Amino acid sequence: MIVILVKKTPMKKILLIEDDPDIVGLIEIHLKDLNCDVDKYYNGEKGLEAALIGNYDLIVLDLMLPGMDGIQVCQTLRGKQVATPLIMLTAKSEEIDRVLGLEIGADDYIVKPFSVREFSARVKAQLRRVKLNQDLATATSTSVLRHNGLVIDIEKRKVEVNQKRIELSPKEFELLVVMASHPGKSYTRASLLNQVWGYDFDGFEHTVNSHINRLRAKIEPDMSNPIYILTSWGVGYKFNEESETQKTVS
Questions:
Q1: The architecture CATH gives domain 12-137
Q2: What distances in angstroms separate CA 46 from CA 84, 184, 248, one per listed residue?
Q3: For 45-63, how does the pLDDT look when each residue is reduced to its tens digit (9 = 90+)?
Q4: pTM to 2 decimal places
């Protein structure tokens, strides 16, 4: 008798925070079709508690929730350095809030009503990003970037300026790594959106500006005369190449 062993793909663990039972039921069905295990919460406070203690691969978060809304949940998570990818669900009339959601750390948004195909595609895109980031971390597990007093430890997601620890949000860190890995290379805002957020957000290039400004405020000695992240006039941004970045592998 021949026994064929089939290696099962591990289930992804998803946190769903949504107060509409019908939407919860629909999303849960299709997440299970994607080999996902779903934890469900119907208000912001309980969902936030779960997000802070659980080890999730993805969070799906409604913008309008009773008590604590999605913006507050997202802001709290990113403030506590929870880097779990997050998809925000919004209504068509909430464009300003969608922009705010992206700027405080949401990785993607889906406008209600949405198709099952669109939802599944967005979820799979974020889960692919998780895998790519894990592969990158493995490939560069001992890589440290150094540039004029700035030290970026990729594995530990740790940044120091002149030996002082700097706390960055997940997106700020990813922006910094992308540019510092290729000093002198100019990036358009659309390119940075695609590489860091993992999706083309048409019309949301100003989100990059907001993150760059916050990043500069944290790492630049003088905001009016930056030495690390420079404006590439007519293009976007680039990392300073005058003093070459050193990459060390131990």
A1: 3-Layer(aba) Sandwich (3.40)
A2: 17, 45, 43
A3: 999 999 999 889 999 999 9
A4: 0.62
